[in-house]
Structures are given as C-alpha cells and as structure tokens.
Specification:
The protein is an all-alpha fold and 348 residues long. It contains 16 helices and two strands.
Length: 348
C-alpha cells in the first residue's frame, strides 16, 4: 500500500525543524561576507539582510538521516532521543548538499532556485563559490565536534562522499562537451552526483542508530538506488516540469542541451526522433522556443520519457530489496519507504 503524502510531509517538516537551529548556528559562525550569501541561499534572508520567508528546501537528506537512525535503533529507544543524537550529523549532510547547490548553480549558470535568483546572480560567482567552500568546511567541523561515538566514521564517509560528488559533477560537465555519451556512463555519473550523498545520509543515520557495517552498507545501497530514482525524476522535471512549480523555464535542461538520462536514452534509441534530437542538439547557437518544443517531443517519441519512468521504478524496487537487509523489522522501515516514495512522486 502506498504511503500517504501527509506522512512524508510530516517527516520533512520534522527534519527541517530539527536541523534548522544547527544550520543557523553554523551559518552565523561564518564571516559576515559569506554568512549573508548562505542566509540568502537558505531562504532566511533577502539580499539586503532583511528576514525572508522563502522556501529553504525540502530537507530530504536530513530526513533520511533521521529516519535511518530511527529504523536501526533499538525498539525501546525514544524517538526524541534518537533524533537528538543524530541532529548534528543530519545538519552536516544538509550543509554538504547546499554547498554543492551553490557551486552547481555557478557551474551551470542557473538563474533561479526556489523561485528566487540564485546566489551567484545576486552576489557574484566568487562570493557564491567561497560561501559554498565555507559550508563544506562547516559540515566537516560539525561532525568533528560531535561527541557521538560514530561521528568519526560519519566524518570519513562524508569526506569520501564529497570526492565522489565532485567526480560526478566533473563527468556531468564533461558530457556537455562530448557529442556522444553512453547510458551506462550517464548512470555512473548520476550515482556519483546524486546517489552518493543520499547513500551517505542513510548510512550515517544507520551508524548513529546502532547498525553494524553490514547494515550501514545495505543502507548506503538503499540510498544510492533512491538517488538514481531521484535523478531520473529530476531529469524528467527538467524537461516537462511546470515552471509555476519548478521556478525554471519550460524545457530548462533542453535549453542548455543537457545530456540528462532521458535525453541520452533518446539519443541512443536508433529512432528517427532520436536523430532529430541529435540534429537540434548539434546546432551551434541558442535554441529557439520552437526548437525546444521539437526537442521535447523528440525525446518523448524516441522513448526517453517512458524509459526514465520505467527505470525509476526499477531502482525503487532495488532500493526496497536493500532496505529489507538493513532493517529486519518491516514496520521500522515505514518512514524510509515514505521518503523513498516521495522521491518518485515529487514535481519539483
């Protein structure tokens, strides 16, 4: 039976409430020049420093940390005690996620995020990059100062994850300069760029909850699989998402000729529609609105959309298999399953 949206929304709200104080404390410890960029990025402040009520993000990653810790904790341990023990780790994961967002927006030259101008558009590329660098260091410091016995292992995992994230981002950028990219290459890149941090979030939560190395490894695999499902849905939204919901223009990924998973599947389909898409992508000038519409239709006719939707379901099924290894008591996995389903139901 599918989990209700209310359950997932409650989990995200609890995660945001739990980690926000730690995030704000970390940001306030930054030099003022970088703190103002970070506060704007998180949606707490306007560019001039006045309070803002902007969307601070969905908090999926900290929610996974909290849910994984609870799923692996002894059944008699109060939920508040589990959450309290893992809050700093969840905040560290969210800091890493937002450091990558700041950098990605600069790299991709994205104009908007969460219905506002991106930080680099407001403060400049240099300021956004430096604020992201500081967030990365704050994430590691947050774990280094944590007294939980698993903090050292969490720090090691998170540092390793950042290297993998950077490798995935480098591959993603390199693909834009290549005329052909294979689907296996694209999936490997997506696992590094998106799956690695979701896997680390789940594994860190499991370790704080008392899981052994085998349980943490299974939880990492669970997170990586939902990360791939997440990326597939994200790529579909990047083409067919509603601008009123996403805050980005129609066909945003096609406008920049991004070789997302549905696009790569379409380009390698051997169909006339795939050939038409390749011709549009080969144009040496900005695409017109009509060409973006044609490219969108070509991805669908070539099977890219259907393939991505089917692959997302397959990765979700694989994730559930890994979760059954990590969490022996099915009812203990309810929150993780609700969050996993949220990934494939989201529209932004």
């Amino acid at each position: 039976m599918p989990f209700g949206e209310d359950q997932a929304a409650e989990l995200l709200a609890r995660a945001r409430a739990a980690v926000d104080p730690a995030l704000r404390t970390a940001v306030e410890s930054m030099p003022e020049s970088m703190a103002r960029v970070a506060a704007y990025h998180f949606g707490w402040r306007e560019a001039d420093g006045t309070p803002a009520g902007a969307d601070a993000g969905k908090a999926i990653r900290p929610a996974l940390v909290l849910a994984a810790a609870q799923a692996c904790a002894d059944r008699g341990t109060p939920a508040a005690e589990v959450a309290g023990s893992v809050t700093r780790a969840a905040a560290a994961v969210e800091l890493v996620h937002n450091f990558t967002l700041l950098h990605d927006d600069v790299i991709d030259r994205d104009q908007t995020r969460r219905h506002r101008l991106t930080a680099w558009r407001v403060f400049g590329s240099t300021e956004a990059i430096l604020a992201g660098d500081a967030m990365h260091s704050l994430a590691l410091r947050t774990l280094a100062e944590d007294t939980h016995p698993m903090a050292g292992e969490a720090l090691r995992r998170l540092a390793h994850c950042v290297v993998e994230l950077c490798d995935g981002q480098q591959a993603d950028c390199a693909f834009e300069q290549r005329s052909t990219v294979s689907l296996p290459e694209c999936l490997t890149m997506a696992e590094a760029k998106t799956g690695a941090l979701l896997g680390a979030a789940c594994a860190i939560g499991a370790l704080y909850g008392g899981a052994g190395e085998q349980g943490a490894a299974a939880m990492d695999a669970f997170g990586r699989e939902i990360g791939l499902a997440f990326q597939l849905i994200d790529d579909l939204i990047g083409i067919w998402g509603d601008p009123a919901v996403t805050g980005k223009p129609v066909g945003a990924d096609l406008l920049v000729r991004k070789k997302s998973l549905p696009v790569v599947a379409a380009l390698g389909s051997g169909t006339a529609a795939g050939d038409e898409l390749a011709e549009i992508y080969a144009l040496d000038r900005p695409l017109t609105a009509d060409e973006v519409r044609r490219a969108t239709a070509a991805v669908e006719r070539a099977g890219g959309r259907a393939w991505a939707q089917g692959a997302s379901c397959e990765h979700m099924a694989a994730a559930i298999d890994h979760l059954s290894v990590a969490v022996r008591e099915p009812s203990a996995a309810d929150d993780l399953l609700a969050l996993a389903e949220l990934v494939t139901r989201r529209n932004r």
